[in-house]
Q: What sequence folds into this?
């Protein structure tokens, strides 16, 4: 927790706590010391069905306070329960904090027996440590799931036990959690969405729509009545508003009327489907995902946000790979967004974080070796005019010296050459690219295939991210530069020359993977194009 610890004056604060009634502090402290010492010996606690995993921090925490109680009969104790419930609202489960056991021990501690108070204290401290860790770092270690993960987890630079003591003895536990919480609009919106979908799931969910018949506007079918009830049960604002009251004739609830068509189109739009009002196999698949499934997708998005949404500065760029959208977020939470094309399941866009450092207008494109072997080489063999028609030059792979295309043996598996596409309207990168040099050779860019943005499924690139409105994006990146203007950008583009423009300050860019998110007040879901959700959910539920 570097942000928290680096701004604190760490000191070991010792104090004595006056307990109510005839209880004497000494016996309680003795019991706490005895129990906390057992952690040093590797004893995982005295309950077979609950695991305490704070073996280092618990002894240090209580040693730093002379083994005096921290939670029993204190304001921080009340705050701990409140914060644990806030943790549940962020997608964690009661078992993550041994919450049921903690409530039992809290009740038992009211007896005033030192051993009961000590047992409550240690389990409460374990719960507090887990909550801090899970909220700040995330419960799941992404590097253990994805070998390509390159986000660095924050390094704890100060002693966490001392910091915990300082807050408990001073501002209180809730003040510490306020420092630890994720401060991002999307995170708060996901919490609200999770509450909504948990309420639906806990009250029975929604009906499953029979999928034997494709449902089309104007038809009458018993499944239409179920479809209507399904959409109303989810209660999404646009869908619910569009569903009109059912007239007495024309089939009643089973008639696929105009209002229901609009509701289905809105649903399809939120789920990345063709918004045509026709309910076919893919629409049925999304409709019949259970409310519990949607709860888990939202829990996963909250966990993924905890992995990366810290130290972002006033402005940052976020690419949602699964949703194929890119966002520019400013200090006042104003969000600019654009449709994007991201990597296919075969050539996945990697999840990582970097900083956009410069733009390049009228770029050349050096074709990556894998794309050359798998895509370009077969085309060249079939169509000798492909290179000239698409403005490619050929260079030797070893020294980048020019080569006459006619002199290359294209029949070889490895002709020893590299293709470089020259600037122009046919260039695969379009007219501008946004660079954050990285080991994956991934960046954001324009494209010469504008029609791809009209598709609802846009996970179809070779790994890089294509932007629908790259020049708006360029203007946002350069907004703080007084020397930049639309006229200057147009002049550069018209010159046709490859031109690098450095940003005044690097802008963080996060390439992440969310199958559930909130946008324009609506909750959006996707069908996990890279099949990544199951492994993360399994780890989150352990």
A:
């Amino acid at each position: 927790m570097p942000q928290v610890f680096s701004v604190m004056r760490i000191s070991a604060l010792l104090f004595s706590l006056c307990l109510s009634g005839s209880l004497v502090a000494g016996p309680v402290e003795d019991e706490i010391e005895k129990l906390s010492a057992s952690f040093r010996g590797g004893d995982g606690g005295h309950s077979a069905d609950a695991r305490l995993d704070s073996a280092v921090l618990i002894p240090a925490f209580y040693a730093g306070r002379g083994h005096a109680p921290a939670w029993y009969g204190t304001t921080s104790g009340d705050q701990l329960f409140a914060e644990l419930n806030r943790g549940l609202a962020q997608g964690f489960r009661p078992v993550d904090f041994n919450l049921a056991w903690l409530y039992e021990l809290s009740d038992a501690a009211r007896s005033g027996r030192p051993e009961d108070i000590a047992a409550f204290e240690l389990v409460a401290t374990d719960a507090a440590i887990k909550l801090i860790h899970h909220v700040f770092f995330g419960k799941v270690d992404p590097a253990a799931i994805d070998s390509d993960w390159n986000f660095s987890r924050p390094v704890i630079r100060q002693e966490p036990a001392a910091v915990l003591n300082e807050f408990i003895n001073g501002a209180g536990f809730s003040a510490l959690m306020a420092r630890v919480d994720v401060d991002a609009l999307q995170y708060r919106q996901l919490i609200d969405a999770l509450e909504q979908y948990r309420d639906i799931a806990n009250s029975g969910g929604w009906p499953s729509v029979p999928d034997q018949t494709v449902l089309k506007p104007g038809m009458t079918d018993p499944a239409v009545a179920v479809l209507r009830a399904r959409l109303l049960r989810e209660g999404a604002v646009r869908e619910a508003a569009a569903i009109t009251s059912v007239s007495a004739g024309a089939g009643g609830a089973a008639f696929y009327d105009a209002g229901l068509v609009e509701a289905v189109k809105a649903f399809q739009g939120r789920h990345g489907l063709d918004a045509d009002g026709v309910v076919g196999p893919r629409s049925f698949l999304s409709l019949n995902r259970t409310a519990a499934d949607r709860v888990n997708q939202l829990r996963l998005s909250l966990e993924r946000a905890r992995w990366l949404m810290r130290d972002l500065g006033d402005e940052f760029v976020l690419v949602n790979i699964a949703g194929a959208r890119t966002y520019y977020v400013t200090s006042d939470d104003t969000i600019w967004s654009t449709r994007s094309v991201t990597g296919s399941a075969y050539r996945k866009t990697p999840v990582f974080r970097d900083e956009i450092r410069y733009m390049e207008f009228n770029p050349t494109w050096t074709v990556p070796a894998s794309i050359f072997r798998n895509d370009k080489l077969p085309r060249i063999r079939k169509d000798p005019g492909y290179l000239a028609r698409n403005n490619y030059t050929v260079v030797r792979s070893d020294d980048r010296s020019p080569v006459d295309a006619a002199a290359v043996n294209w029949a070889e598996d490895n002709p020893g050459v590299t293709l470089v596409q020259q600037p122009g309207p046919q260039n695969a990168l379009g007219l501008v690219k946004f660079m954050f040099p990285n080991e994956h050779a991934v960046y954001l860019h324009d494209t010469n295939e504008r029609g791809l943005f009209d598709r609802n499924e846009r996970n179809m690139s070779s790994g890089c991210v294509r932007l629908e409105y790259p020049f708006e994006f360029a203007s946002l990146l350069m907004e703080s530069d007084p020397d930049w203007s639309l006229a200057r950008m147009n002049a550069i583009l018209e010159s046709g020359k490859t031109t690098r423009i450095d940003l005044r300050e690097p802008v963080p860019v996060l390439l992440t993977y969310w199958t559930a998110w909130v946008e324009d007040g609506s909750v959006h879901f996707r069908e996990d194009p890279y099949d990544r959700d199951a492994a993360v959910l399994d780890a989150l539920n352990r």
The radius of gyration is 29 Å. The CA atoms of residues 90 and 191 lie 6 Å apart. The chain is about 40% helix and 15% strand.
